[in-house]
Design brief:
Layout: H1 4-9, H2 21-26, H3 40-50, E1 57-58, E2 64-66, E3 69-72, E4 77-80, E5 84-85, H4 91-99
Antiparallel strand pairs: 1-2, 2-3, 3-4, 4-5
């Protein structure tokens, strides 16, 4: 049986409006990518990418996708679709790739 008290005690979520659209539009450009368990270093990496006007999707807790580039910030691994691992690692290498325009939106 559903405990209504649990529903009433929970904090509001940004997507509690009927369509979820209004609340999502009010999120900062970073908040939609942040997760509660993220370290400050991971959040700083996300900000650095977004601040350079790149569209970022957060596919999992461990993966960011920018066009056809996958970035795994925990280890700094970069792969370019279809599954080509880039020899360099880390945020600086990712930003260099993005600045060269190697990415393409899929």
């Amino acid at each position: 049986m559903l405990n209504i008290g649990l529903l009433l005690d929970r904090k509001p979520h940004p997507c509690d409006d009927p369509a979820g659209v209004i609340a999502m539009k009010n999120l900062s450009r970073y908040e939609r990518l942040f997760r509660p368990t993220d370290t400050e270093d991971l959040r700083a990496q996300i900000r650095a990418i977004v601040d350079r006007s790149h569209h970022v999707d957060r596919l999992t807790d461990f993966q960011l996708k920018i066009g056809n580039v996958n970035y795994y910030p925990g280890k700094g691994t970069i792969t370019i679709d279809p599954h080509h691992r880039h020899p360099k690692k880390g945020l600086d290498a990712l930003l260099e790739i993005l600045e060269q325009g190697i990415t393409k939106t899929l």
